[in-house]
């Protein structure tokens, strides 16, 4: 055999051995599995060996014990490798996102409606949808400067701070019952809408069950009957008459000028005929050259003065425009004025305000006495005159997907342009230990919850800014 052929065969045998060795590391993964959980005897014996042996019906006690891997023949090892294996587990995927937060089931619902009357009147329906009786406190915020004339259901009108007044009821609601309350306000200026938000709280008044709002508007006065004006007082008729008068005047002027020109021409011809009868033949006179007149130009001082006046006017107009634009810049403007998504919306207490993802409604704002603020979220000492202001806010997800929101983006603005974010620890305590910002809101859901702000000083917040995201324009609610 030639040397080259022997070398090729040796190389082929070497490569074949390498292939077998490459398959050997896969065997230990199957061997421990077989040792730990041996297969039934009916599945492990080879089909060819089960038929000729008559004693196969009475297997020996050691048949179920798997043979050591080291004693298997290479053929058995290859057969073991080529056996079909169950499909492997799917590849690792990213962990699922946080499940959207669903609002807890409501035990008490509130509905507010207005009545068509000359003076503002509100009808409140409080319903207990639970299977047990409940005690609740119902509060209705009255518009600033308004006063009540009638309160039903044993409610009391008390000042709520500043110029606002609230009506309070303490009710015991039987299971699956509905209680109707009513308030009437004194007549106000015509055309002024009045919004009165109403909330049902727990018996101690700390946690809201549900809130609703309604805006009363005076009935529109019937439109006065408009009589048709006479034809000579209608604008189209007057314009048509004026146009006809102008056309007639222009025609008369044209006729008069034409007749006058004819008369002048006739008089000149008659005068020339009489003078030329005695002089005989009149030959045309040679045309005398017209003197060249120099075109008059304005003096230089006039041109320079006009240019100076125009330049001064342009500079003055530009400076005045720039001054107005600079003066229009509000240095205390809120951060949302340059937002990227949507347009900022301003409103008052109890008015639903919608931004890009959420619809916010601020129903109530109550602040404690100065010096009653607890420890801050980091465990530090509270401000000397600090106090907590709790806002009852309704949040509705108006999008088709779950939306997150963050406590740092909900702000209360104080006099002077200062602002504070939501106190997370106090808000969690007010919500019975539930972190309302931990999970996103599910699509179409609505929650009524308290947001707590820790402020310093004696002045309450003047404005609340609520947003769903960093680039959302958000809404701003003016406090009374």
Automatic annotation (TrEMBL):
Region feature (Disordered): 37-103, 135-163
Comp. bias regions, Low complexity: 37-72
Keywords from the UniProt entry: Membrane, Signal, Transmembrane, Transmembrane helix
TM regions (residue ranges): 235-256, 300-322
Residue spans of biased composition, Polar residues class: 135-151
Biased composition (Pro residues): 84-98
Signal peptide location: 1-22
The protein, known as: DUF4352 domain-containing protein
Organism of origin: Micromonospora ureilytica
């Amino acid at each position: 055999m030639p040397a080259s052929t022997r070398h090729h065969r040796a190389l082929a045998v070497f490569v074949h051995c390498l292939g077998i060795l490459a398959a050997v590391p896969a065997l230990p993964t199957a061997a421990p599995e077989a040792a730990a959980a041996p297969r039934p005897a009916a599945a492990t014996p080879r089909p060819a060996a089960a038929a000729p042996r008559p004693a196969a019906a009475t297997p020996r006690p050691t048949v179920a014990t798997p043979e050591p891997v080291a004693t298997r023949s290479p053929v058995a090892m290859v057969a073991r490798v080529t056996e079909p294996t169950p499909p492997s587990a799917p590849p690792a995927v990213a962990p699922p996102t946080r499940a959207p937060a669903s609002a807890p089931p409501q035990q008490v619902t509130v509905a507010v409606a207005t009545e068509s009357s000359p003076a503002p009147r509100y009808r409140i329906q409080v319903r207990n949808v639970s299977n047990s009786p409940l005690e609740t406190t119902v509060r209705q915020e009255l518009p600033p400067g308004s006063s009540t004339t009638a309160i039903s259901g044993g409610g009391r009108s008390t000042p709520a701070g500043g110029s606002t007044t609230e009506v309070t009821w303490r009710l015991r609601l039987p299971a699956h019952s509905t209680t109707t309350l009513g308030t009437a306000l004194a007549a106000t200026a015509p055309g002024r809408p009045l919004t009165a938000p109403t909330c049902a709280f727990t018996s101690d008044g700390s946690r809201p069950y549900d809130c609703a709002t309604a805006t009363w508007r005076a009935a529109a006065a019937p439109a006065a009957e408009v009589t048709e004006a006479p034809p000579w007082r209608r604008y189209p008729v007057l314009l048509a008459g004026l146009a006809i008068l102008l056309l007639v005047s222009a025609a008369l002027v044209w006729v008069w000028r034409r007749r006058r020109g004819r008369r002048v021409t006739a008089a000149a011809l008659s005068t020339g005929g009489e003078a030329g009868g005695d002089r005989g033949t009149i030959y045309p006179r040679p045309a005398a050259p017209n003197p060249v007149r120099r075109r008059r130009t304005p003096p230089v001082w006039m041109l320079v003065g006009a240019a100076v006046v125009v330049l001064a006017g342009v500079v003055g107009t530009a400076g005045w425009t720039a001054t107005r634009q600079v003066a229009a810049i509000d240095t205390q403007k809120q951060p949302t004025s340059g937002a990227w998504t949507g347009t900022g919306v301003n409103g008052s207490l109890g008015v639903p305000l919608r931004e890009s993802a959420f619809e916010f409604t601020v129903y109530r704002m109550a602040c404690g006495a100065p010096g009653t603020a607890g420890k801050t979220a980091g465990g530090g000492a509270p401000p000397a005159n600090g106090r907590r202001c709790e806002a009852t806010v309704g949040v509705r997800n108006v999008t088709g997907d779950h939306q997150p929101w963050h406590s740092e983006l909900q702000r209360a603005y104080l006099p002077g342009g200062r602002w504070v974010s939501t106190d997370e620890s106090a808000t969690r305590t007010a919500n019975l230990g539930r972190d309302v910002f931990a999970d996103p809101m599910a699509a179409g859901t609505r929650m009524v919850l308290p947001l707590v702000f820790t402020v310093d000083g004696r002045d309450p917040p003047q404005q609340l800014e609520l947003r769903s995201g960093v680039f959302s324009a958000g809404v701003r609610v003016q406090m009374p």
